[in-house]
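Researcher: I'd like a structural prediction for the single chain below. Treat it as a standalone chain; there are no partners to consider.
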Amino acid sequence: MQHYTVGQAARLLGVSPDTARRWADAGKVPTHREGGEGAGRRLIDGRDPAAFAVGLAQRVQYDDESIHSSVRNSFPGIITAVKLGDVVAQAEIQAGPHRLVSLLTREAVEEMGLEVGMQATVRVKSTSVHIDRT
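Model: Treating it as a single chain, here is the predicted structure.
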């Protein structure tokens, strides 16, 4: 399981580190201390910001003017779901307000070690959706 610092989780969620700290302090995103209670920096399990990102994106409203695109879009985000079939697989990534889905081979998912909570960058060109493990 991948873990993130509060600052790393903030970047993945598209908010400031202060906002992420407030969410953690309020219990919206669970944290634990590196090295045990009272010691080290706060860490967040990868699955927690993944689930929070999905819920956050569903609550946020965006107007058409706030979304810009080009033919080569790059979306850093967090993997929120991986569905494996016998030959094909589906990976869902929440990148800020954007939920992106990539269809790829099961072999590619296994080779890259993709799992929920992992940081990834989605690159979209035309109708192709590619995932870079970051």
